[in-house]
Design a protein that fits this description.
By secondary structure, the chain is mostly helical. The protein is built from five helices and no strands.
């Protein structure tokens, strides 16, 4: 028995080569409304005026960029989440215990008449 490969289906396109590219598909032109084509200029709000002032002054601009770098830094709690979780649990347990014992102490004083 001889096994022969099947011929390609008749609707299959020949393989693409650099000299044979697919034809350009035309799309319908997009008709944008006039307000989308010609937008109004940005309003001069106090925030934009302050932003322009900061951009013009080199010292203020450097301070702004330093603030952005500080704000976007990697915090120690982000790089050591397990240590922070254990420490915060211990701190919460100590503060909770102190609050309970403090309330018990004040109750004992009130029952004895000292408070």
């Amino acid at each position: 028995m001889i096994i022969r490969p099947l011929p390609p289906p008749p609707h299959q396109d020949p393989p693409m080569t650099p000299d044979r590219r697919p034809a350009h598909e035309h799309r319908n032109p997009v008709d944008l409304p006039d307000w989308m084509r010609h937008t109004t200029p940005t309003r001069r709000t106090p925030a934009r005026l302050l932003d322009d002032l900061v951009e013009r002054r080199p010292g203020l601009n450097a301070a702004r960029r330093a603030w952005w770098r500080w704000r976007d830094r990697t915090r120690w709690s982000d790089s050591h989440p397990h240590v922070v979780a254990v420490v915060s649990f211990v701190v919460a347990a100590v503060l909770g215990t102190a609050a309970v014992f403090g309330a018990y102490y004040l109750l004992a004083l009130a029952l004895r008449g000292y408070y």
